[in-house]
Specification:
The structure is a single chain. This protein is mainly alpha-helical. It has one domain. It is built from five helices and no strands. Helix 4 packs antiparallel against helix 5. The longest helix has 24 residues.
Length: 121
């Protein structure tokens, strides 16, 4: 179980660091042009907030494990990622983008797994 947790934490963290960085450092137009049509419905400041939370949560899922303490931060960050993914799934379903909703469901389950498996014994 520990190895699976390490793998899922690492993947989840890296995915959210990459996607959060992309959204944070690109303009709304570039996010839309690269396939993020969901961004059409949001103000640029909201996109930056979402991206910032993704970026911080991505780092916070990985760093406590690497440092060997602060595992509660991993759980809290995974809960933040699960919350973001819940909103993302809702947005994609509302826009009838079911393939994106399915992919985000996988990330949601990964975040829930990390939340469950990283709790202190």
């Amino acid at each position: 179980m520990t190895i699976a947790l390490w793998i899922v934490e690492s993947l989840l963290g890296l995915i959210f660091i990459i996607t959060g960085s992309f959204k944070f450092f690109q303009s709304k137009e570039k996010v839309i042009a690269s396939g993020g049509t969901w961004a059409e419905e949001f103000e640029p400041s909201i996109i930056k907030v979402i991206a910032g939370v993704e970026l911080i949560s991505g780092f916070s899922v990985i760093v406590p494990r690497l440092l060997g303490h602060g595992h509660y931060l991993t759980s809290m960050s995974a809960i933040c990622i699960a919350s973001i993914m819940t909103g993302s799934i809702y947005t994609h379903i509302r826009r009838k983008e079911f393939q994106h909703a399915l992919i985000n469901s996988v990330f949601l389950f990964m975040a829930l797994f990390v939340t469950y498996a990283s709790k202190p014994v």
